[in-house]
Design brief:
The protein is α+β, with helices and mostly antiparallel strands and about 180 residues long. It folds into two domains: about 30 residues; about 150 residues, START domain (Alpha-D-Glucose-1,6-Bisphosphate, Chain A, domain 4), CATH 3.30.530.20. It is built from six helices and seven strands. Helix 3 packs across helix 6. The longest helix has 28 residues. It is elongated and about 80 Å long. It starts with a helix and ends with a helix.
Length: about 180
Amino acid sequence: MDKKKRFPVLKLIILLIGLIGIVVAGLAALGPKTTEVERSIYLNAKRQDVYLFLLDFLHYHEWQPARELDPQIKPAYEGPKGKGGKYIWKGNEQVGSGSLEIVKADPFRFIEMKVIYEEPWQAEATYQYRISSDNQGTKVTWRYEADNSYFSRISMLFMNMDKLLGNELERGLERMRDYYYKWKK
């Protein structure tokens, strides 16, 4: 091939790479910057009892949804019960490893935890538990929040995170309720 024929092919390849880059950047810019999912459940219990139950990572280990994927998950605990307390887990390939730390606690109303996933991928998120009472009982709302990296925003355009994570939060809340009633007996 002579130089004249190679040059247009090279131009075409560079143009296609540039076009792909523009499409990827455009899709990432369109994707959501955050993922926010929440679910709620009612318990027939006193708000303060539910709050104290949620502060205790020994209980969390028993009802967390990851135990369905790995019943042999290995927990470790650090710090006090409540703000500053930490739950560290190491599980199988599906569960991975990471930690939860209680970073905010408003007595009988609100608990916020920082979640750090270490394996199989690295990420950070926030769990929030809002606890309130009304004529139906004590309502626990579990909220998941995470910032999406620039390139993960592309996949978020094609995934229903509300359904995917929402199902996990619902299962977790149901497990929490069932374990709470069993523990309270």
